[in-house]
């Protein structure tokens, strides 16, 4: 089954303890779509400006991503500039230039409206709502957000939460959004608002799944190589939804598996700047790393004798 991803298409300027890169390919939709494309046919929608380099479109096309709904808009591409300190779980924004995002008003064609798996990547929540209202009978809708929108469009974000199956959010943002340091309590509040499930991304520490009746924790991975965490959350989401679309199975066991697939994809994405590691990634590496994740999260039962 296919995946529709809507979000930003960006040129990022990123500084980490491992270097600085200017105007590199980024954007929430781009990171998510590349990751999803390893599993399922993926269509991408997002605003791009006249200055967006053709070579990036060629790369997306080479991954089999459906670009038919992309149109260059008058003006400059969305730009984000940020840096990370030694704690690379926390992105610090230097500058956000919305540019063509300000005029972005997606109108889905009939075929796109019927896409079964939809990921509303980090984007203006008012645009996310416009997209939700056009969808026809989706099997699963997931969304993401960030501090920028929590601060500027909180009410619209509440509306998004009411309408999605899965809300993906990182740990500092869920605390900010639900105004509590207690993550399980924050997740409970989001479930009460209307989300069917909440996934809290904890960067190098893993990810948590909260539903009304279940709790699951994806393990951390001992990352030997990492240079740039930008796009980790979106790669996670792309792997998560792409895998669910590929299998079409929404059982709890498979959702747990999808969480690990998402973690695997994020762990590769951060190994290099921009999409550079994903360009080199081979399918067998995904399977191998999944096995490592499995090993790290297994433990044996306590023997009753220990309590005797
Ligand atoms: P993440 O997966 O959370 O690291 O997302 C990183 C991507 O989000 C970057 O490539 C940015 O271009 C993009 N981004 C940054 N700020 C925003 C924003 N306010 N809205 C949408 N996308 C953004």
Structure description:
- The structure is a single chain.
- Helix 9 (232-247) runs antiparallel to helix 10 and helix 10 (252-269) crosses helix 12 (283-296).
- The longest helix is centred in the C-terminal third of the chain and has 18 residues, at 252-269.
- This protein is α/β, with parallel strands linked by helices and 308 residues long.
- 39% of the residues lie in helices and 22% in strands.
- Strand 5, helix 2 and strand 6 (72-73) form a beta-alpha-beta unit.
- The protein contains twelve helices and 14 strands.
- The model has no long low-confidence stretch (mean pLDDT 96).
- It has helices spanning 28-36, 54-62, 110-113, 125-134, 147-152, 154-163, 171-178, 183-193, 232-247, 252-269, 276-280, 283-296; strands at 3-6, 10-16, 19-26, 42-45, 48-49, 72-73, 78-83, 92-97, 117-120, 140-144, 166-170, 197-201, 207-211, 215-218.
- It has an eight-stranded mixed sheet, with helices on both faces. A four-stranded mixed sheet has the order 3-2-7-8. The protein has a two-stranded parallel sheet with strand order 5-6.
Largest sheet: 8 strands, mixed
Q: What gap, in angstroms, lies between the N and C termini? A: 52 Å
**What would you call the shape?**
globular
The helical percent reads 25-40%
Q: How would you state the average pLDDT, rounded? A: 96
Widest beta sheet: strand line-up: 4-1-9-10-11-12-13-14
* SS field, number of helical segments: 12
Radius of gyration using CA atoms only: 19 Å
């Amino acid at each position: 089954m296919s995946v529709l991803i809507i979000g930003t298409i960006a040129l990022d300027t990123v500084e980490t303890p491992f270097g600085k890169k200017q105007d590199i390919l980024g954007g929430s939709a781009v990171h998510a779509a590349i990751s999803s494309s390893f599993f399922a046919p993926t269509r991408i929608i997002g605003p791009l400006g006249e200055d967006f380099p053709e070579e990036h479109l060629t790369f997306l096309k080479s991954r089999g991503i459906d670009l038919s709904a992309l149109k260059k808009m008058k003006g400059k591409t969305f730009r984000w500039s940020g840096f990370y300190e030694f704690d690379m779980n926390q992105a610090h924004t230097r500058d956000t230039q919305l540019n063509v995002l300000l005029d972005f008003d997606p109108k889905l064609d009939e075929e796109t409206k019927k896409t079964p798996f939809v990921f509303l990547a980090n984007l203006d929540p008012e645009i996310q709502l416009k997209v939700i209202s056009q969808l026809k009978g989706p099997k699963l809708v997931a969304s993401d957000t960030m501090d920028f929108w929590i601060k500027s469009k909180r009410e619209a974000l509440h509306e998004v939460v009411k309408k999605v199956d899965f809300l993906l959010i990182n740990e500092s943002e869920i605390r900010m959004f639900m105004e509590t340091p207690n993550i399980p309590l924050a997740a409970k509040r989001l479930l009460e608002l209307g989300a069917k499930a909440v996934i809290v991304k904890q960067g190098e520490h893993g990810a948590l799944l909260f539903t009304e009746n279940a709790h699951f924790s994806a393990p951390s991975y001992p990352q030997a190589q990492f240079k740039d965490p930008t796009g980790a959350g979106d790669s996670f989401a792309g792997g998560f939804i792409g895998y669910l679309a590929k299998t079409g199975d929404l059982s709890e066991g498979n959702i747990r598996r999808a969480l690990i697939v998402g973690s695997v994809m994020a762990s590769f994405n951060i190994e290099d700047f921009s999409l550079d590691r994903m360009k080199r990634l081979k399918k067998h590496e995904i399977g191998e790393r999944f096995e490592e994740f499995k090993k790290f999260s297994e433990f044996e039962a306590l023997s009753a004798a220990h309590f005797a």
